Amino acid sequence: MTDPHAGIAHQGSPAAFFDLDKSIIARSSTLAFSKPFAETGLINRRAVLKSSYAQFLALLPGADHEQTERLRTHIASMCAGWEIEQVEAIVEETLRDVVTPFVFAEAAALMEDHRSRGHAVVVVSASGREVVAPIADALGADAIIASEMATEDGKYTGEYSFYCHGEAKSDAIFRLAAKNGYSLEQCYAYSDSVSDLPMLDLVGHPTAVNPDRQLRRKAASEGWPILTFSDSISLREHLPAPSTRTLATTAAVGLGAAVAAGAVALSFLRRIR
């Protein structure tokens, strides 16, 4: 079989690709918004419980393709008919409360360290773009790769136009690297899940973060670094008010995240260098 990534350029600039859930934040980004979606009437209590259970199964070590597909189908069908603007508004208004208290200090510091070395920082996630983008903005990321829902007349159809998982995630990284001139052999990737092996295998510097058992075994056998992130920081005070986010404040947030990490972040960076 022909390697679809054959011919990867070895000349170019480095980038760091960060998985979102359990690597940057300590919870599922999609599940985090179940409560505000319920409070605004988008979903009912039964849907919240079903979503929580589906995510729990899919996040278990060794979750198989069928479980992942079941979660994908469940989330997509649950969103059918939702208005895009309403979802974006809910995410923006509740971001401070549902996500920012769960950001790993070590992840924020590591992202800032990559930026200080001139590396592009990219957040990659199976969660939807509407959820991933504001979190990545708050952390000062340069780009995101995320799942995208199909839309029609300002509403979600209940289908995915792109599901960012497994091989599809690594293929998207490959395309972004080709577009932006990243040298994959100089790139870094960070993830907690064995499902991200295609992404980790794609780059020259893979790292396991809070890994599940299967990924831990793989990382140990390959000699990959294994990092433990446990300290959390809040970006709440650094986030701009809803609907006023700008590129300037985004850059300030990224810097603020590293500063907020304080001694924990500095100690962590000394350990990994």
From TrEMBL:
The keyword Phosphoprotein does not apply. InterPro entries: HAD-like_SerB, HAD-like_sf, HAD_hydro_SerB1, HAD_sf. Keywords: Hydrolase, Magnesium, Membrane, Metal-binding, Transmembrane, Transmembrane helix. One of its GO terms (molecular function) is hydrolase activity. CDD domains: HAD_PGPPase. The chain crosses the membrane at residues 247-269. Belongs to the HAD-like hydrolase superfamily. SerB family. This is HAD-IB family hydrolase.
